[in-house]
Amino acid sequence: MARRIDVKGVGGVRLAAWEFGDPPEGEDTAHASGLLLLHGLMGRASQWASTARWLSARHRAVALDQRGHGRSGKPAEGAYHRDAYVGDAEAAIVQLGLAPAVVIGHAMGALTAWQLAASRPDLVRGLVLYDMRASALGVASQREWEDWFRSWPVPFATLADVRAWFGEQDPWLERPNPARGSYYAEVMAEADDGWRPVFEPAHMLASRETWVYEAHWEELAQVTCPTLVVRGPDGELGRAEAQEMVRVLPRGAYAEVPDAGHLAHYDQPDAWRAAVEPFLEGVLTA
């Protein structure tokens, strides 16, 4: 079970935070080690459920629906800049009493995590960064995403159609991936005319535009807490760049999830846990 707690984000945006499990046995919640989990672009907090379940057995695990996502507020397009995402994560840690927190981020959530750690080291005791590049992706990448959103056959008639399109028919797919179909089914909601995403694609493109054209090595080098860079062989982050990120980080470490792609925390939960749990235990018990 997850308990919803509302957080006031940057500009007064209402953010839905989800606390998983009960307080660790024998501990008051306020004194348990805090973890904040940040999903990637188009994701939602519920996609961290399997990770949060084992974390919440001993620690306080909270996943955030970031602005424009899940059940959080969806402000106008100009509200999706980097400072807003980072400020929202800061607000969640402060308002929920998680500091100093370990922040676990997937893709865009990982970028938010390390930018927060660079600007507010007092709030972050450790980072886990999954499948996010520090290098610039460039104009062509943004244009590809614009074309991809236009290719979506929305509204979908049924959730089965959502799973089939994203898991089998999506032109971006190199091979069928049923787990990917399930992942996208979680970010759809039923409307009068069928199933549509719970986010506005224009907001997602606006969010991406604020980081896709720039490299983020400078902020990475400013992160002073222990940081685990994680990748899967079939993900977006290449091994050479991941190892360079580890080198740039003052206290960086590296892990790989075998046979995984971009969604390891979602579709390879056991392998994901095996890759990150030793690092987390070391940071949380230090």
Walk me through this protein's architecture.
There is one protein chain. This protein is of the alpha/beta class and 286 residues long. The chain has helices spanning 49-55, 82-95, 108-119, 139-151, 159-169, 178-185, 201-212, 217-221, 239-248, 264-267, 269-284; strands at residues 2-8, 14-20, 34-38, 60-65, 101-106, 124-130, 188-191, 194-197, 227-231, 252-256. The strands form 2 sheets. Strands 1-2-4-3-5-6-9-10 form an 8-stranded mixed beta sheet, with helices on both faces. A two-stranded antiparallel sheet has the order 7-8.
Summarize the structure in short.
With 286 residues, the protein is α/β, with parallel strands linked by helices.
